[in-house]
Amino acid sequence: MGRRSPLAHAPRPTTSTHRQVFVNDRVKAVAGPIVLATDASVGGPDRVASGYLATTGHAGLRAHVYPKYPVRSHSRVVVTELRAVYWGLKAVLHEHPGRPVEARVDNLQALRHLHSWQQGGTDMPEGYDTHLRSQGRRPSLVKLQLLAEYTPDLTFVHEKAHAGHPLNEAADSLAKLGLRCARGAVPRTELPRLVPLWASGALADYRRSRAA
Q1: Domain total for the chain?
Q2: Residue 4 within any structural domain of the chain
Q3: Closest CA to 72 of 142, 113, 127
Q4: Are 35 and 55 in contact (CB under 8 A)?
Q5: C-alpha span between 64 and 41 (Å, rounded)
Q6: Alpha-helical runs (H) found in 2-107
Q7: How far apart are CA 209 and CA 203, in angstroms?
Q8: What is the CATH number of the domain that holds 186?
Q9: Whole-prediction pTM value?
């Protein structure tokens, strides 16, 4: 990308860990069609993180301890990939209802779920609990399934991972940053500085790549 990630300058590891970490931010947008890139990162038996970046300037990450009842690790990865799509779409559609959005996903199994949901399917990743959460909240993937089925002009496409695409690389970096923070390797207080810094740099690279 022609730019060093701010993760290269992240503080030295600390001893504290966090059960949940999240940041939602907004930086300067890129004019043109709305493109959303999402990614996930999984570490150890129970830590997961997701990241997203959109040309609207919306950027964010989430990391938390994953419940242990879905025993298959591949299911945990797919669930986290889909959660990244949900949080990214939620941020973008809140400000831009009715506008077409192209969501780029690098996990083919997650992409198959999204395409199935657009056609009215209700299948979920293996082991995913669809019961209501605390205070009667719908699970995030159930909400994403409804978004995919009933929101017009949503397009879900495959983005090859680690191929140098600025938005995908940024989503990957944000997810990894969230995971490092959840493990205690990056202080939570650094996230409000690092997230917009990395998002702004990636969107600047994306803007230049379109102009080339």
Answers
A1: 1
A2: no
A3: 127
A4: yes
A5: 11
A6: 73-95
A7: 10
A8: 3.30.420.10
A9: 0.88
Residues 6+ apart with CB under 8 A from 176: 7, 41, 49, 51
Please list, in sequence order, all residues whose beta carbon lies within 8 angstroms of the beta carbon of residue 198, skipping any fewer than 6 positions away: 5, 6, 7, 59, 170, 173, 174, 177
Q: Pinpoint the alpha helices (H) of the chain.
A: 73-95, 108-118, 140-150, 166-183, 191-211
84-120 pLDDT, tens per residue? Answer: 999 999 999 999 999 999 999 999 999 999 999 999 9
* Beta-ladder partners of 20: 64
Whether residue 116 is contained in a domain is answered as yes
Q: Give the tokens for residue 186.
A: 């990056």
| Cα 70 to Cα 6, 116, 143, 180, distances in angstroms | 33, 21, 19, 22
Domain assignment present for residue 12? The answer is: no
The pLDDT of residue 14 is: 45
Residue 75: both structure tokens together: 């299911």
Looking at the chain, how many residues does it have?
Answer: 212
Give the Cα separation of 100 and 151 in Å (integer): 9
Confidence of residue 65 (pLDDT cuts 50, 70, 90): confident
Expressed as residue numbers, the domain containing 78 is 17-211
Interatomic CA distance for residues 122 and 156, integer angstroms: 17
